[in-house]
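Dataset card, provenance and construction

Sequences and ligand SMILES were collected as paired inputs. For each pair, a complete structure of the chain with the small molecule in place was predicted and serialized as C-alpha cells. The example below shows a pair involving zinc ion. Curators did not alter the output after generation; any descriptive sentences attached to a record were derived from the structure itself.
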Amino acid sequence: MTATAFDQGEVVVLRGQAYLRRLAYFMVTTVLVVVGSMIAVQQLILAPLDALYVLPVAFVATALGANTGYHMYFTHRAFTTHRFFRGTLALLGTLLCQDSVIQWVANHKRHHRHVDLANKDPHTPWQFGDNRFLVLTIGLWWASMGWKFDRTLTSKKFYAGQLLNEPMLRWFDKHFVTISFAGFAIPFSFGFAIGGLELGTRWFAYFGAFRVFVGYFFTELVVNGLCHCVGSSKFRTKGRSTNLVFMSPLTLGATLHHNHHAFPRILSPAVDKELDPMKLLYQALEKLGIITMAPGPSSHEIEKKRTHVIDSA
Ligand SMILES: [Zn+2]
Ligand SMILES: [Zn+2]
C-alpha cells in the first residue's frame, strides 16, 4: 500500500494481494447475501408468519449495528456507554459485512469531511458529475456498491487513529472476516442442529443473508445514495444531503440524513418531530443507565442553521 496524491496520509492505494483479498471478501459475501436473500424471500412468501420474527430481527440488528453502533457511537461519539454495550454494538456492526469497525469509521469521517466532492468523498452519488441521469443510475450504483471496489482506501491511521489504540476494537478489526462469516455459519448451524438441513438453510437465509441485505439496502443504497440526491433539505450544510422523511419510520430514523449532516452529534436525527422509532429506545436506554447522550445543540443553534427553503427532487 502506498500513499496517493490526496492530503498527506489521508488514503492508501491497495495493491496486489491486499486489494484481491478485499475484492474477494466483498464478492463472496455478495453472492452469499444474494442467494440467501432469494431463499429468504421465497420462504417468506410460503410462510408469511415467519416475517413476524424475521423482519424485527433484521431491522433492529441493522439499526443497532450500523446506525447506533458504527455510525453514532464509534464515529460521532453521540453517547457514552459501558464496555459490554460497546462490545455488543461492535459485534452487531461487524456482522453486517460492510467493513471492519475502524475502517467503517475512517470511511465515514472522510465522507463528512469531503461530503459530495467527487474523488474525495468515498461514496458520493455525484462521483461522475452533475448530470441527473448519471447520478440516479451509475452514481447510485457507485454509492451503494461500486465504491467498495475502489483501490483507494481511507487510511484508518489518519481518520481513526484513536480507535487503533483500543484493544477491543483492534480485536474486532483483526477478526472482521471470521466474525462476519460466522454471522452466516452460526444461524445455519443452530438451525441444522435443531431441525436438519431445511431449518439450517432457512435460518442461514433469514438471519445470515437477509439480515445483511437489509443492512446493505438501507445503509448503502438508501442512505449513502438516495439521501444524497433525492428528498428534502432545510439546514445549511456542506454537500447535498437530503431527508427522506416518509421513509424514516421504516429505516428507524436513518433517512433523516440531512438533519444528521447538519447536527452530526445528535443521537436521534429527528430534530423537528419527524418520526424516529429509535428515539424512544434511546430514551429508555438512557433511563436504564446504559447510555448517556451527548448534549445536543440548543434550539437557537438549530434555528440559526435553518434555511427555510425546501428543495425536493
Ligand atoms: Zn451523508
Ligand atoms: Zn455521520
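Derived descriptions for this record:
The pocket of zinc ion (ligand 1) is lined by residues 111, 228, 241, 257, 261 (CB under 6 Å).
The longest strand covers residues 11-13.
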